[in-house]
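Have a close read of this protein, sequence plus structure tokens, and explain what the tokens say about the fold. Thanks in advance:
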Amino acid sequence: LVPFKFEWAWKGYLESCGGHWMPQEVRMENDLAELNEVHMVKDKQRFVVGTNDRKILCNLLANHIYMKQAVPNMAWLNLYRLMENPEGRQYLLRQVMEEAVHDHAISNLQETLGLMTFEVDNFSIVRHLHLLEDTYKDRFKQLREFLPMVTGLDGKTDTVEKVRDFILELTILYGFVDWIAMVTPIYQVIKLSEQTGKFKGVAETANFMLRDLVRHQQVFALMLETACAENPEAVTDVLRADFVGRMKKLMDSQSDLISLLSVDEGDYADLTFLMRHKFVEIQTQFGIHASGNHPMPSAYMTGFMEKIKAHEIELHGGGASVTGGSSLGWN
């Protein structure tokens, strides 16, 4: 491991280890009681928690289930296989652990709250999954077309063209799969809990997941900066055009899903802002000037962005280094 070339990768690893959490540490008794609370209406029992709130809770499960089918944790292990730098590899192993903890968290919510088998007001997660199925299938097909290196076993970076393709996959894997596609239901759950005062256990779980994703994004930004600095010949107008084209297609599918995930008009605008914010952030790293009219965030989304900022850790560096250690050296 020593000497370190990329201190940010090692510090990211240490910070992530220091913030380790396990889903069963989050208390869910009150959440379960809230879901099962009933009252009498015209001599009939009615659940206090309505269908829309249950949909928001189920969105977290449904999105995770479908996304893991499209891009399993093997993608992060493929990054490990391709990367030569030891501290970078150490961080990736920690991230794989966090991805597995998120899987565990979703299973824990299913088992603890019984959301997979619950039915109320003609709503069940089985029907909810069926409603989303076609849109997620379209995304699955797109992601597999855009991520052949990290979802297969034959990825190599032995030519400039393959390095360019790999950098594209890196941006889609982190920028879309590990952020844009995951943050929507997390946002919904946290907002629902803050507005109703209920489901604090689910919201705490979502907040832990959000914290991990925020830190993944910080390491990704430095990883992308370094990969581009070490391979300047790959960062061409072809790469920039491919990136914009592919991300716009994925963002169109995300817009369709945001509509299906039972959010109101204000939430749709806020989530569109959050999605666009990440897109512009990556464009800037590629030297693309982002212009045009952008949606303005609501007061709630402004507060949510502050929550994101509060999860960040202090990481510096990036770019090609000339002292000690090995380059990221995608092989």
